[in-house]
Specification:
CATH topology of the largest domain: Rossmann fold
CATH class of the largest domain: Alpha Beta
Order of helices and strands: EEEEEEHEHEHHHHHEHEHH
Structural class: alpha/beta
Radius of gyration: 18 Å
Distance between the termini: 30 Å
Number of helices: 10
Strand order of the largest sheet: 1-2-6-5-7-8-9-10
CATH superfamily of the largest domain: Alpha/Beta hydrolase fold, catalytic domain
Helix content: 25-40%
Strand content: 15-25%
Mean pLDDT: 95
Oligomer: single chain
Number of domains: 2
CATH architecture of the largest domain: 3-Layer(aba) Sandwich
Shape: globular
Low-confidence stretches: none
Length: about 290
């Protein structure tokens, strides 16, 4: 499905019923927006891992502008600010009231910005392996220097400089870097099926890392967030290290912090069941 909103067309997909029988009444389930990372990836990385959450919530997946199945456009419009405003426009397009906001990695940056800008529209906020500001770039470079192979360090230069030349090169990056993203990844195994079916966008990741992430900083906005917030970090995360999750939790009132001790950045690959349990329990019991 596609929504023509603002100056673009956003692809979205919905999983799970919104209205369900509950004894003698019909009950409306919470609606959750799942915000994918990258940038330059798409929403399909959430599937099928997050599908069990549809028993508790109606899930709205979507692709950021210029990414996945959403419309392409002028590269200079592929900004975090537009991602936030596209998300609010999609909420209005779908006629929704308050939503559960779940963002991972770069999607967590969008989620933090959205929740601080539109606090009245968020019932629960869950941010997974993300950061509040640009400092993560230098810290990730330090960690890569300590843990990475020479091949990983070389291809990561395209990330830091925003110079991926093709979809194939971007997929090569994720293939080569996979053992850093997931502590369970076998470097000799073929890429997971999720990456074979993903639609990647070099333009989106180049604009982000080459331009706006270098000045990204929402730390002074985080106290504006009013929704109950769950901050999830991963002990072995190389690109969004757990100290940044700790910073986020300190700055958001009414927030809970959980660090997954046996995960890298890809918690949904390393500890998927525990991740879903944490999300489902938080939304159910924090109403």
């Amino acid at each position: 499905m596609k929504a023509k909103i603002r100056d673009t067309e956003i692809y979205f997909d919905i999983e799970g019923s919104g209205l369900v029988p509950d004894g003698s009444q019909m009950r409306e389930k919470p609606v959750a927006f799942l915000i994918h990372g990258g940038p330059g990836a798409d929403h399909t990385g959430f599937k099928p891992t997050f599908s069990p959450l549809s028993r508790k919530m109606q899930l709205v997946y979507f692709d950021h502008r210029g990414q996945g199945r959403s419309a392409r456009g002028a590269k200079e419009t592929y900004t975090l600010d537009n991602n936030v405003e596209d998300m609010e426009a999609l909420r209005q397009y779908l006629g929704l009231d308050r939503i559960v906001v779940i963002g991972a990695s770069y999607g967590g940056m969008v989620a933090l910005t959205y929740a601080s800008r539109y606090p009245a529209q968020v019932s629960h906020l869950i941010v997974i392996v993300t950061v509040p500001d640009f400092r993560f770039l230098e810290r990730a470079k330090e960690i890569l220097a300590e843990r990475g192979t020479e091949v990983q360090k070389a291809i990561a230069q395209h990330l830091w400089e925003g110079t991926f030349a093709s979809e194939e090169q971007l997929k090569d990056y994720f293939r080569i870097m996979r053992p850093l993203y997931s502590i369970k990844a076998d470097p000799d195994a073929p890429p997971p099926k999720s990456w074979e079916r993903a639609i990647v966008s070099p333009d989106a990741i180049n604009i982000a890392f080459g331009q706006f992430l270098r000045t990204y900083d929402v730390r002074d906005q985080l106290p504006n967030i009013t929704a109950p917030t769950l901050v999830i970090g991963a002990r072995h995360d190389w690109i969004c290290p757990p100290e940044f999750s700790e910073d986020i939790a300190r700055l958001i009132p009414n927030s809970d912090l959980r660090i997954f001790e046996h995960s890298g950045h890809a918690i949904r690959a390393d500890e998927p069941e525990a991740l879903l349990d944490a999300i489902a329990g938080f939304v159910v019991y924090k109403r």
